[in-house]
Amino acid sequence: MTSRDALIALNMLPKIGPVRVRRLMDSFGSAEAILSAAVHEISGVRGIGPETAEIIRSWEERIDLTTELREVEERGLKIVTQDDADYPEALRQSYDPPLLLYVWGELKDVDRHAIAIVGSRKTTHYGTQTARQFAFQLASSGMTVVSGLARGIDTHAHEGAVAAKGRTIAVIGSGLGQVYPPENMALAEKIASGNGAIVSEFPLNMPPSKKTFPMRNRIVAAWSQAVVVVECPEWSGALITANLAGEMGKPIYAVPGQIDRPSSAGCHALIREGAVLVTSGNDILDDISVLPLQERVQGDEAARRPPLGPVEQMVVDAMENGASLVDELLHATTLSLSEINAMLLKLEIQGRVQQLPGSRFTLK
User: Fold this and answer.
1) Where are the domains of the chain?
2) What is the distance between the terminal CA atoms of the chain, rounded to a whole angstrom?
3) CATH 3.40.50.450 is the classification of domain 104-287
4) Cα 31–Cα 35–Cα 39 angle in degrees, nearest 5
5) Which residues, including other chains, have CB under 8 Å from residue 211's CB and lie 6 or more apart?
6) Would you state the pLDDT for residue 236?
7) Residues 184-205: pLDDT tens digits?
8) Do the Cβ atoms of 70 and 161 come closer than 8 Å?
9) Residue 182 CA to chain centroid, in angstroms?
10) Which of 88, 121, 259, 363 has the least CB density, counted as fewest CB within 10 Å?
11) What phi and psi, each to the nearest 5 degrees, are found at residue 4?
């Protein structure tokens, strides 16, 4: 067994965790030595009791390492440990780094320029649009958008980054074989196919739980240079991520909402406690003094818009000729339903199109 395989095995065991494994590594020197140690030797390490020692000693009866490694290879995934060059440096330097990461997609050096966008699973139209716009602006500037692939704000943040043809990292609270929520599988595939990566510290087939989501949140906070909270109530997992980032000394940004909306109460509380109020992605870039990796054009909003591609122009032309419903756009163009929806999302994020009640769209 290699040191890498032994570490994967330890990561798969229940009731152990990164902190205990690192403590054991300090005592035994290697993952292989931990797995081959006697129960009394393991339980003699500070903070490691008889129950944990017995779990480790009987590891072959508790997990199927061979199947795990085979499935990882068959699915085209990668396992990255702290000994690998592509393990994120921000995580390596954090207080409680994951032992390893299962990666679907590709991690790149540019992902060190990362901003987290988080918020509530239950969103308003305002929160949805704001998350998309912030993510589009940040990803267009060359920043990597990090979020948790959850319903609501997370989903729209990832979609905004993909629409900008930028980078986005989804850190999930389950194994990569149990992508959650399941309705985001298509989005996960799109991210992994060239826009970033889906990442998890959990064994391949671990389901999500109340324990795994806070663990996921610490990775999101540690990976990012700053955290943006777009919309959340007074009690939200997004606030956990923001508080963790604040404890790490990282900037916290919050988007204000209507003062009488409970959906924005968490953001307003963060602002009262010292978070920076922001109204655009450029506010964030300016505040943390990050030079975007692509030139930002100064001037009014229209001047900052990228030129229309041929497909986008086809949709705009159809709308100029009176098409406003998706069905009308389908008849007026040669595009499929998925292509129409993707173009409308992109044009909406760019500020060229506005969605009206009744699923109608109009040019702005």
Assistant:
1) 1-63, 104-287, 301-363
2) 62
3) yes
4) 130
5) none
6) 87
7) 999 999 999 999 999 999 999 9
8) no
9) 15
10) 259
11) -65, -45
Element (H, E) at 354: strand 353-356
**pLDDT tens digits, one per residue of 28-39:** 999 999 999 999
> CATH for 1-63?
1.10.150.20
Collapsing DSSP to helix, strand or coil, 260 comes out as coil
Which residues is 277 bridged to in the sheet? 254
> How crowded is the C-beta side of 40, counted as CA atoms within 13 Å?
0
CA distance 193 to 168: 11
Does domain 301-363 fall under CATH 3.40.250.10? My reply is: no
pLDDT at 83 exceeding the cut of 70: yes
What band does 289 get if pLDDT is binned at 50, 70 and 90?
low
- Long-range contacts of residues 89-95, Cβ cutoff 8 Å, at least 24 apart: 90/114, 90/222, 90/223, 90/224, 90/225, 91/219, 91/222, 91/223, 94/218, 94/222, 94/248, 95/222, 95/248
Residue 181: asked if its preceding bond is cis (omega within 30°), the reply is yes
In the numeric block, which tokens belong to residue 130?
A: 């704001």
Q: How many CB atoms lie within 10 A of CB 319?
A: 20
What is the side-by-side strand order in the sheet with 226-229? 78-81, 100-105, 196-200, 167-171, 144-147, 114-118, 226-229, 252-254, 276-277
